[in-house]
Design brief:
155 residues, 7-stranded antiparallel sheet, two-stranded antiparallel sheet, 9 strands, SmpB, RNA binding, SsrA-binding protein, RNA-binding
Length: 155
């Protein structure tokens, strides 16, 4: 029983670190995910990769594709497909707002963070983002370095 409790965790916070480097976030939303079978167990084990994920609209509904949730180790033939499309659950008002933002030039929707909320439900934080250019990346790195230097001088 103690091994079971140690393996599964409600304190899951998986971030897409590459997203902050590659994109400038315009707006963020928290969406639920429609999961099947053993996917939640793999998420609770922390076996998720958000790096290649992206979101798209299909008939007015938002889907996420490219998120890799590893197969559950204890699962049998009921195990889930690792990179299937998953429906995101948002309010209609949020969907229309996001869709209107996406119709602008150069914006995309990317998964930024996957976490389990206090009720035990898996949530995906998505960001409406604009791609950074090379000079933007250099600028953000400079800002981080300056901030780090100031913190070091203070203490």
């Amino acid at each position: 029983m103690t091994k079971e409790k140690a393996r599964f965790s409600n304190n899951i916070n998986i971030k897409n670190r590459k997203a902050r480097h590659e994109y400038e976030f315009v707006d963020t939303y928290v969406a639920g995910i429609a999961l099947k079978g053993t996917e939640i167990k793999s998420i609770r084990e922390g076996k998720v990769n958000l790096m290649d994920g992206y979101c798209y609209f299909n008939r007015g509904e938002l889907y996420v594709k490219g998120i890799h949730i590893s197969p559950y180790s204890q699962g049998s033939f009921y195990n889930h497909e690792t990179t299937r499309e998953r429906k995101l659950l948002l309010h209609k008002k949020e969907l229309t707002k996001i869709e209107s933002q996406i119709n602008e030039k150069g914006l995309t929707i990317i998964p930024a963070r996957l976490f389990i909320n206090d009720r035990g439900l898996a949530k995906l934080e998505i960001a409406v983002a604009k791609g950074k250019k090379l000079h933007d990346k250099r600028e953000s790195i400079k800002e981080k370095d300056v901030k780090r230097e100031l913190e070091r001088i203070k203490y």
